[in-house]
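Lab channel / #folding
Pinned by the channel admin:
"Please post every new chain as: sequence first, then the structure tokens as a reply. Keep commentary short and put observations after the output so the thread stays searchable."

First post following the new format, from NK:
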Amino acid sequence: MPKDPGACSIMEKMQSKTLKVHPDDNIAVALTTLAKDAVISNGLGEIILQETIPAKHKFALNDLQQGDDVIMYGVLVGKAIKAISKGGLITTANIKHAANTYTLKERNTQWNKPDILKWQQRTFMGYHRADGSVGTANHWLIIPMVFCENKNVDALQEALLKALGYKKSRSRYELITESLVAQYRLGRTADEILNNVIAIEENTDTHKKIFPDIDGIKILNHTLGCAGTKDDTTALCGLLAGYITHPNVAGATVLSLGCQNAQLAILEEEIYKRDKQFSKPLFLLEQQKIGNETKMLEQATRQTFAGLMQANECKREPASLNKLCIGLECGGSDGFSGITANPAVGHVADIIVALGGAVVLSEFPELCGVEQNLSDRCVDDATAEKFMHLMRTYNERAKAVGSGFDSNPSAGNIRDGLITDAMKSAGAAKKGGSSPVTDVLDYPGKITKPGLNLLCTPGSDIESTTAEVAAGANLVLFTTGLGTPTGNPVTPVIKISTNTTLYNKMNDIIDINTGTIVDGKETVEQAGERIFEYIIKVASGEVQAKANATNHDDFIPWKRGISL
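Reply from TO:
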């Protein structure tokens, strides 16, 4: 299969000020802010800019009339709603969302398989589970079946964290508060307190971990479990079962009230659907049966401690790279996402698939406009039909409540150059690389096949990441152009910036910069290989993803139905 001609132009070092992503495009991207009346002649013909084009935004390569197609990445991303002059800025005022229709067509599963020779004998150090999966971490979970138990889950986690050496006795912000109290007692004014420099020494008074091979004790608090539809109840239990059976999880303690819709019996059924030989330590406690809250928490503490003793016996051992299952995610996307971080992650996805591993692409509202390409890449007609059915059904349900996929771009997306959903989606889909689609899963499904999997989730990045991990992702690559601290309780989330300015500003929460591609210092492939080497280190526990090091443990189940 010949290379995507658009990919060829992206793969080259970008040292110019503009980029036409695909030969068929009639708009181009400004790689830096371009002044009004500037003359652009970078293989695009001579174009005089009609207005200032901010970096990441697009401008017309030829005159567009009302109703004309707007093409980017070689696909339809919008329609002109008024005339746009050659060199004019593309905005929400002059184009609207539009995407091509899609139908079942012939299979197109040939792909640009990367050279993987240098990684074929490589391994990572992971936690081997009885079902054959391998974890990149080793966590204990404390889970409420219903929001009524969130307080008890919090109390149980708090008691265990300090006693077992997972939490500093005082946080940085507690130390700051103590300093402010001291200043207040000395009679300082509010202005003095606001402006005085506070010197805080790094707090290193964490106790030594009692269980050194347990990475953490994590909670999955949520607002569901009762007063929802039967489908949402089953989906919640399936999601929680996905975490309990996850390779990064050693065992779990589950607290149930007793009268809620999300019953322990449903959870157990969902667990055994995912792992018929499930053998991890699992403790299920029901408050209305036990009666006394204190008694339940004492019992839960004892059982959890015993489970931790067992879980601590699991040690890291070498594992083949085909045991990696990578979630592909984005959030706070910008106008560079589709030309730097996302295609770099797509190259990583192709490497992992070529090695025999699995990757999962979700956020179905952000696949609007590339449905035909993805359905054509499905390995068989049934898989393609399932994907198209899920896309149509989801969009129809959104329209039924006065929305639709065209409502997906956020204010921040639009401000940074992603004007329509199709424009955003065409760039977002680059994370999936070029390999065939081996399976399509509805929420909250589990990945059972190697290769590229599509998982139906919302475009909301935390709901989507939550679902990818439940599906089995033992590591997540998360691209961002605007910056986000998002993480996950059990799976390392590696944050990748699309631009160097963002990385320099927020490198306390971002791991890797792919702004080097726009800066002309690196190709997409080179950036992808650099990301892949970092993946191996994180998967082996050699380095911590910054989201996990800073305890960004975000967990939001997807509630599809109404409350009853």
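NK: Residues 5-15 have pLDDT under 50 and may be disordered.
TO: also worth noting, The chain is about 30% helix and 15% strand.
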